[in-house]
């Protein structure tokens, strides 16, 4: 089982990034997919969630209207489009797959928003 995030980096405030998480080794389409982040000195925070099948999507209030989560069940990939980034979005972003008690984590990708 693997979850491999990519797309992080350094961006100026107001900029955009698109994170990808490529999954392998499990039945991706049957899993809820989530993006979490951990800012320096802070606890892990659930940023966005998309259900199996994509019918249900949820965001933490601080990213609503700026971030968009999506999934491609043919490519076994989940995305997080992040627009209008601000310094408070800085952190390590983790991809997470969940189906009942079956849960997997990626290694994380760093997002730094700074001028």
What is this structure's SSE topology?
Blueprint lengths: L1 E5 L2 E3 L5 E8 L7 E7 L5 E7 L6 E3 L7 E6 L4 E6 L8 E9 L2 E4 L3 E5 L2
Parallel strand pairs: 2-11
Antiparallel strand pairs: 1-3, 3-8, 4-5, 4-9, 5-6, 7-8, 9-10, 9-11
How does this model look, in words?
The protein has 115 residues and is mainly β. Helix content is 0%, strand content 55%. It contains no helices and eleven strands. The strands form two sheets. Strands 2, 4, 5, 6, 9, 10 and 11 form a seven-stranded mixed β-sheet that branches. It has a four-stranded antiparallel β-sheet with strand order 1-3-8-7, with no helix packed on it.
Main traits of this protein?
mainly beta, 115 residues, seven-stranded mixed sheet, four-stranded antiparallel sheet
């Amino acid at each position: 089982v693997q979850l491999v995030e990519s797309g992080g980096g350094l961006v100026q405030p107001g900029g955009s990034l698109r994170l990808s998480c490529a999954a392998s080794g499990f039945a991706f389409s049957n899993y809820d997919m989530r993006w979490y982040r951990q800012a320096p000195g802070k606890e892990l925070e659930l940023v966005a969630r998309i259900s199996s099948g994509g019918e249900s999507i949820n965001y933490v209030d601080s990213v609503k209207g700026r971030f968009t989560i999506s999934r491609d069940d043919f490519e076994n990939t989940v995305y997080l489009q992040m627009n209008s980034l601000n310094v408070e979005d800085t952190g390590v972003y983790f991809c997470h797959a969940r189906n009942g008690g079956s849960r997997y984590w990626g290694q994380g990708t760093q997002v730094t928003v700074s001028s």
